[in-house]
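Entry type: protein chain
Record version: 2
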Amino acid sequence: MPLPAGVVSRPALAFTTDALAEIMTACFEAYVVPMTMTGEAFNGRFRRENLDLQASRVFVEGEHPVALVLVVRRGWTARIGAMGIVTDFRGKGLGRAALQSVMEDLRKAGDRRLLLEVIASNEPAVRLYKSLGFKVRRNLVGYRRPAGSINPADVTDLVEVDPLTVARIVAAEGAPDLPWFMAPETLAACTAPARGLALSKEAFAIVEPAPQPNLLSLRTLVVARHARGRGLGRRMITSLAAAHPQQDLVISANFPEELAAGFITRMGFERTPIGQFEMDLDLTA
C-alpha cells in the first residue's frame, strides 16, 4: 500500500533527540495511554532498547511530521518500539502504509522476525497488526503493590550491586524468552538512577524511579536456582517495600501473564488495568 499523497518517509537519524521526543508526544496525543516525552526520557528509554535511528522512520507532509515508527533491533530480530500517528491523519491508511514500508526495509536488511507490543484494548491497532500477519504470542500484564505496614522480621538489608551484574545473572539464572523490556540485553543498559540490589548474594533485583514520585518500578527480580524455595524472593520484596515505605512497587505491563503469577499475588501485588499483547511476524514468509 503506498503512502498517502504528499507524505514521505525520512530516517529518524535526520532528527535530533529532542525533535523525536516532540514528534512522539504529538503522535500519541489522545491515544489509549497518552504520552509526554522529553529528549532526556526518550534517550533513556530507547538507548536501552537498541534503537536503530536509520531503520526508524518519521513520515512528513511537507515539513510537518505526521507519523513515527521507531525500530529497535538485535541480531536478526527487530521490534516496533513505538508507532504513532498525529490525530488529523488517523483512520486514513497511513498506519498500514507506514508499517508496510518499514517491514519491507527490514526484509531487505536481512531481518527475519519482527515483534511489537500493543495495548490489548486498542482494537483498531490489533486489527491492523493481525491483518498484516502478526500473531499474538502471549499476554503481558502489569502489577502494583500498595505501600503498607511492614513486618520488621521480614526486613533484610540489601547490598547495592552493578545493574550489569544483575543483568548477567538474569541471563544465566532467569526465565528464558523474556519480553524485550525485561530481557537481559535491555537490563544490561540500565544505569543510574536505576539501582541493582542483592540479598545474600543469591537474590537480585533492579529498581528505578517511576515517573510518579509515589511509585518505584521493579524492573527485574531473580533468585539463583540453587537458592530457590527458601523465601529469598519474598524477603527481597518486603525489604524493598521497607526501604521505600511511601512508594508503591510497580511492574510495568510488559510481564508475561503466566510467569510467577502465584508468587506475585502472594506478595500483595494487584493486576493493573492496562494489558498488552506481544505479537510477532515471520519476515521470511
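Comment: The longest strand covers residues 64-74.
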